[in-house]
Amino acid sequence: SWEVSGLVGSRLDGDQWIEGEKGSIDKQKYSKDSVFFRDGVRRIDFVLSYIDDKDDQRKQERRRVYESNLQKVGLELETEDKTESEDGKTYFVKIHAPWEVLATYADVLKIKVPFKVNDIPDNSEIPMNWLSTPFRLPEHIMNPEPDYFTAPFNKSKSDFFLIEDKETFFPPSTRNRIVYYILARCPYFKDECGDRDKKGIKRLLNNGTYTAAFPLHDSRYWTKSKDPNCESERFNLYKYWAKFFCFFKEQPLNLVRKYYGEKIGIYFAWLGFYTEMLFFAAVVGTICFVYGFLTYDDNEWSKEICSEEIGGNIVMCPLCDQKCTYWRLNITCNSSWQSHLFDNVATVFFAIFMGIWVTLFLEFWKRRQARLEYEWDLVDFEEEQQQLQLRPEYETKCTNRKLNRITQEMEPYLPITSKCARICLSGATVLLWVSIVSLVQFISYRLAVYASFASIMKNNTATNLDVVAPYVTPQLATSVTASCINFVIIMILNLLYERVAIKITDMEIPKTHLEYENKLTVKMFLFQFVNYYSSCFYVAFFKGKFVGYPGNYTYMFGSSKLRNEECEPGGCLIELTTQLVIVMTGKQVWGNIQEALVPWLMNWWGSRKARSHPESLYSRWEQDYDLQGFGQLGLFYEYLEMVIQFGFITLFVASFPLAPLLALINNIIEVRVDAWKLTTQFRRPVAAKAHSIGAWEEILGGMAVLSVVTNAFIVAFTSDMIPRLVYMYAYRTHDELNMKGYINNSLSVFNISHLFKNLQENEIPDVLLLCRYRDYRYPPDDKKRYEHNMQFWHILAAKLAFIIIMEHVVFMVKFFVAWMIPDVPSDVRARVKRELSMHAESLRHLTLNVCCIFMISHSLCSNCGVEDDQKFGLKKDKILYTVCQPESFLMF
What is the 3-state secondary structure (H, E, C) of 379-417? Predict the structure, then answer.
């Protein structure tokens, strides 16, 4: 039932208050920037806004019924007329939750509250603690609340908890969470049969009955509130957290959690921890890059490519059939030198290091997360989320009912046949769209490469090889141009499949908010994974691997126009590096600009009328109404952005050791951009709990395992590390242990006369008899001509051996590290046990004290009876529970 006996709401009627529990109160003048009702006492916990359309009777009736039901629950409402608003057409309904409502639903939601001051000493002394002084924030900002032992609130045992002031016992974030829980389940329409209710503020927002529903910020972000009873936590967050010049300061996570709730707090905790761990990866990656730079002059194969005597005399076969001509090897001189910066011995070390780093990151995050779970009262939260907080959409769409064995109450459920059918249809749709996105990405990348390569080669085509400009590098220019085109296509596809993922998830009708977010997370990540990484996977593992040889090239889909692409003599690694840098950097720069600029411009445009109003006429609810709504999926997109970045720095990091450095710089900016926009550009989100980062944790773990495999394959098959080592130790023709002669050894020979029948005579220069191509095959004068030689099989065996050894070594270290580092710190485990022990002990003492009072004040009988209990002022509905013991106590 939505009725609560003994509670009377009050509404504003003109300039007078309707008489309620507190009697009649005159309308008083007060600051419109206040977060309290007009009486200056009752706090505004939530605000609803609407534009009254007198011609739409249905919306008026919905609002009347809905607000009436809210009052029956016990919420108190106060309406601001449209004449009081700055646009002259918007009504604002302010909602206050009195103590009885808060206590009732805090009991229902099992919200943990303090019952005893924490008596465990904090012995976490940090050696040389003075070094961290420049990075610290004031203590009242870092720890805005004392440390308490907490327990789930029980309304019938309210004396057990540390309640000093009922008005401030529940913080504003908890108050708005409770109110939203009521708003999401309050009915606004009952059908004629009376068995199905239409309910929830979300549906009222969707059908336009209300235009917005939001909790209030407690002050303006640039100045403190004039009301001394207001905390002004928003101002503190902006001053110490959201300003960019605080980028080197620690984050006030406890204040973030107190103001925005645990779900947003744990996101910023994860983002901050991820950024801290990136520092170590960035340092090692930079050292590896510097090593490649310092060994620049030792690069023998690049010297041979750039040499006029060697690279200038090697004529290469065409890289495509129609637009391409023969070319000299020395035009790839620049790209060869650039490739050495990333393709050197340090690449192997860094790939192994990142495999271990990602394990340390995940394991240490689990420990950090376990500590936050205890400190933020999130232990055993998942069960609460699953059992109590059903999605209103689930309750509305599921007409069948069954008994919940845990709560012993009838609840809606989705039949197993319907559930299986929806899951199968959803899975098939996801696979179809993943295939479509993969195909589109592959075709778009091929077309981008073809278009850019053709345009560049158009100016360099000549029958005389000597006129080719020596400073032009068509392969590198092609890679850059194609990567830029591919990035634009990626951003366009984003707009399409995001809507598809939401539609598919809605079709499945998830039961809880947690289940909905997890399902949407998996789908969105699959689409993003394919969209962002397809071109990188293609360049790393497919391009140049199945091309055949001159006269017998391999064509895709049997088409004579879709010849498989080749890598340049320097290898595909530099092209993979280019693709990774452009897509990763472009996404990060565009993401930060979009996150900061778009909400600022929309808020600037939306509040242009109010900017000319004096502060006294621009109320707190109107200020927040003009801001952007954060939305249910606002935090989801923040996680998705960071996880995609995580994939770039782990899956393909062997090709670009500076990727962690770029990610570190971006994340330092990202933390402050997210804090700034959340504090200044968005309405205050409804506080929500989350005990972890959810499904993202499993996704990160899966990517960590996959990264070991991909980096091993990149070192083995994409870079030239293994062929060079095989040549150095097995195939060099001189006594010195160096790379002299490697280029000539790594290029096979093709006799153009074998292809003469397929070419026009004027296309073959007179001086051209042989051309070279990248492979290990027998020469044309051998009886096994153009077949793979023994060196090819030796290199293949070495590559496979390297992959097996590297994977086993890294996985063994990963599992050993994971085994050595417990997920929950020992001190946290002890604190949890201590809190449970103190809870039981305090409850036992409370019970014994009540029993002692009862024994003094009452006469007891052997069957736990009590006589004349009313004369001591006790009511029967206040009895907590009865326990019969040999002493026959009746406990209250």
Answer: CCHHHHHHHHCECHHHHHHCCEEEECCCCCCEEEECCHH
